[in-house]
Amino acid sequence: MSSFRDDGALALDWVASYLERAGELPVLSQVEPGQIRAALPASPPEEPEPFEAVLRDLDDVLLPGVTHWQSPRFFAYFATTGSEPGILAELLIAGLNQVGILWRSSPALQELEELTLDWLRQLVGLPAGFHGHIEDTASTGVLASLAVARMLHPDRRVVVCSEHVHSLADKAARLLELELRKVPVDDQFRLRPELLELNDACAVVATIGTTGAAAIDPVPAIADRCQTTGAWLHVDAAYAGAAAVCPELRHHFAGWDRADSITVNPHKWLGVPMDCSALWTRRPEDFRRAFSLVPEFLQSSDDAVNLSEVSIPLGRRFRALKLWAVLRCYGRAGLQERIREHVRLAALFEEWVRGEPAWEIVAPRHFSLVCFRREGSDAENERLLERVNDSGEVFISHARLGDRYALRLAVGNFRTSEDDVRTAWDVLRREASAL
Amino acid sequence: MSSFRDDGALALDWVASYLERAGELPVLSQVEPGQIRAALPASPPEEPEPFEAVLRDLDDVLLPGVTHWQSPRFFAYFATTGSEPGILAELLIAGLNQVGILWRSSPALQELEELTLDWLRQLVGLPAGFHGHIEDTASTGVLASLAVARMLHPDRRVVVCSEHVHSLADKAARLLELELRKVPVDDQFRLRPELLELNDACAVVATIGTTGAAAIDPVPAIADRCQTTGAWLHVDAAYAGAAAVCPELRHHFAGWDRADSITVNPHKWLGVPMDCSALWTRRPEDFRRAFSLVPEFLQSSDDAVNLSEVSIPLGRRFRALKLWAVLRCYGRAGLQERIREHVRLAALFEEWVRGEPAWEIVAPRHFSLVCFRREGSDAENERLLERVNDSGEVFISHARLGDRYALRLAVGNFRTSEDDVRTAWDVLRREASAL
To answer: Strand, coil or helix: what is B183?
Structure first.
């Protein structure tokens, strides 16, 4: 094997060049299912190959199969950013290769995880008293939180949420054998609290920033109801939570400080590469009771509480290092600046849509997501979406809001400029005229 | 922010230097609980800081809190390796920042994941017909497999395993509300198949290479019994599975080809940085039935089956890229060479222990783990372990085997040499004499 330093210089150069040219590549991969696999050998090599060969095939074979989440013109789902300090921190994480199975297996991992989650708690304006740790995704965080709720209320096998809840709640409920009761939403796609029936519910999942429309459930009213019945309140702010870094957007988060658990994904809108999902709880002792199992082979003489005692997997990566690197290299000011710019760009796009005949906005915009459509049928809008994405110039996605098909433009990549958003609008209008 | 290329060169140099000096640092971190956190600011910075500041604090503040899993003298738990190609692949993964939520969100991620798991299947000698995907840890893989078993046998709420099963089975059973029935082991710490009672069992978890003693459950006999009752058979070979890359060790895996699902962790003994746990199943359609939920916002016109439909989290990292890099840069021959060398070193250590009065081997050695103890009480052996680990020269761990406290020396780091194993033996004897 050639030297790590030489191979590393090649890998670093590859990533630097990739970031420079990501904006020139078709955003949505244009390959057919099976095409990438068919272009690779069906069996592993017998003898060692140089790392350069890996880089060469990454360019020649894999890259056409990459949908460019790092492109400034990625506007689908919720756009994300693997920021520069976050990327380099992943190199450090892999170099150290810490395996957090208990405190002593990596004191730095555990203590930095608890510290950075407390930093992030302060940044988003949550009060003291929330204990945080990192999960891979919000799916796992919700699963863990609902498992705790089920333990606390063994006779209540219902979880309540809005009909716009993310599918993670369906999956968690299925795994935990709980019934998921979906409450209708109002004309702004918010859970209607007057329809809440919580007597048999162990938990409510409220969302601040739903996947479809970034709608905001009425958390204060829901928290009141949970307080009465003792139901666990989980707030899913996986996407929107980042916005709470800006004081002027914090009113959208009224009441979330009353939650029993909260998820916010720094890998969505805070520049941390996939994966890094923050889970805070005001009831860490309940989490510990639900998950703690310290087998003999992990018993040690220190008194530390291990993070594996409050979550599902035993082993964890040193994800805190990338969160720490991003929080330091941007600082509060740098994160606020990017979030404000994304909100400004989304507002601008919204204004363009509102100003154009035959186009309409179909949901209130609170953050950096715009839901809109063009006049015509759902099928026509779907066809428009396909044409736009097939162009490779931008990538947007869709949602079903009420009984209508909606197009979604989500600003969230740190490299996105006003020009990129204007390109999206130009492509949309061009493809609409061509239909 | 300074340039990515400049910061990257610093980060790369940091990792290269770290790998060069990892062997000189105290293997087990010597800090007290709370010490690392107390040395860091309680609040995040307001303004951006340079990436260099992160690297400086990594050296000055965090490194004393790192237990060096990359040290050649790490012999605790199961020793692992973040190999050079694996580390650099993590840099690429973060640079690309793929989020695998469905096929089209990254065709390369999904197809490379399926391909590399098929490569690995071939390397460990499993037959065609197993479909593989990657989970974060074996905990998640077992949880998913048992969820499928529960779905298939809704009236059987029991999972059967040996009393030496990893605590992951306890955690999964608790989450799935299944009863875990532990079967006694024989004098080689293997499940006693004549004690299996499976009429009410939805699944059996058999282990090849238990955590305590790397014991091998009698999988062929267990598979026979599962076949009769229809119970799902999961084989946990998280550590030992790597050894199946060597044909001369493959007899230990007799019968695992009859399992319904199998876990092997490339992040343990195959050089892949944390995290990368392989999960194969002969019944991917059952997994899909248990986990598939494709919400509206993810529906697309292609026909691809998405990996999120066979596992718990919706989003996944591009972990396949590091597995691919490692399999290519070592090749079958390179992996075999390292596993054989580790088995040779463990056999050598075993021989030294057997040849020394007052020391004994307490479990059969099949792979690269040696379980041993010194004459005297459990408390004396525990005290010996503490002295050895406090020296910082090597790090070993322990297990309870039967009614006795055992010391464990696990060879598994690619950088470990015969000199390192000899150092472990020297330190053990030195500290034993000093007791």
So the answer is: strand
Q: Which amino acid is at A296?
A: E
- Of B49, B123, B140, Cβ closest to residue A44: B123
B309 Cβ partners below 8 Å, 6+ apart? B287, B288, B291, B292, B293, B294
DSSP A49: -
Q: Which amino acid is at B89?
A: A
With b meaning 16 or more CB within 10 Å and e meaning fewer, what string describes B87-110? bbbbbbbbbbbbbbbbbbbbbbbb
**Global model pTM greater than 0.95:** yes
CA distance A266 to chain B (A): 13
Q: Which of A52, A326, A9 has the alpha carbon at shortest distance from B9? A: A9
Closest-approach residue (CA) in chain A for B62: A108
Place of tokens 């718990």: B312
Alpha helix stretches (DSSP H) within B270-397? 284-291, 320-354, 378-390
Partner-chain residue, chosen from A51, A87, A103, that has the shortest CB–CB distance to B94? A87
> Which residues in A lie closer than 8 A to residue B296 (C-beta atoms)?
212, 398-400
Q: Rounded to a whole number, what is the distance in Å from the CA of B113 to chain A's nearest CA?
A: 9
In 3D space, the residue among B216, B215, B233 whose CA is nearest the CA of residue B159 turns out to be B233
Pairing verdict, β B404-410 and B131-135: unpaired
pLDDT in tens, B160-170: 999 999 999 99
**Contact, A306 vs A103, CB < 8 A?**
yes
Interface contact A92-B29, CB threshold 8 A: no
Cβ pair B175:A176 closer than 8 A: yes
- The CATH number of B4-68 is which of 1.20.1340.10, 3.60.9.10, 3.40.630.10, 3.20.20.140? 1.20.1340.10
- Helical packing angle, B138-152 and B284-291, nearest 10°: 90
Q: Answer whether B97 sits within 8 Å of A140, measured CB to CB.
A: no
The amino acid at A160: V
Q: What radius of gyration do chain A's Cα atoms show?
A: 23
CA triple B254-B257-B258, angle to 5 deg: 100
- Each residue of A164-207: pLDDT tens digit? 999 999 999 999 999 999 999 999 999 999 999 999 999 999 99
Determine the Cα–Cα distance for residues B141 and A388; give it in Å rounded to an integer: 38
- Rounded to a whole number of angstroms, the distance from the CA of A161 to the nearest CA of chain B is 15
For domain B87-327, which architecture applies? Answer: 3-Layer(aba) Sandwich (3.40)
Q: For residues B30 and B64, is the Cβ–Cβ distance under 8 A? A: yes
Half-sphere exposure at residue A151, Cβ-oriented, CA atoms within 13 angstroms: 18
Residues B105 and A77 sit within 8 Å (Cβ to Cβ): yes
Contacts of A383 (CB under 8 A, 6+ apart): A435
Q: Residue B114 CA to chain centroid, in angstroms?
A: 20
Q: In chain B, helix, strand, coil percent, each to 5? A: 50, 15, 35
- ipTM given for this complex: 0.97
Q: How many CB atoms lie within 10 A of CB B305?
A: 18
Q: Which residues neighbour B139 within 8 Å (Cβ) at sequence distance 6 or greater?
A: A312, A313, A314, A315, B168, B171, B172
* Residue extents of the structural domains in chain B: 4-68, 87-327
Interface mutation vs chain A, best among B274, B316, B335, most A CBs within 10 Å: B274
Residues of A in contact with B330 (CB under 8 A): 48
**pLDDT tens, residue by residue, B172-214:** 999 999 999 999 999 999 999 999 999 999 999 999 999 999 9
- Could you give the CA distance from residue B288 to residue A306 in angstroms, rounded to a whole number? 33
Q: What is the DSSP letter of B292?
A: -
**Nearest chain A residue to B302, by CA:** A33
CA distances from B405 to A262, A293, A349, B347 (A): 42, 19, 67, 21
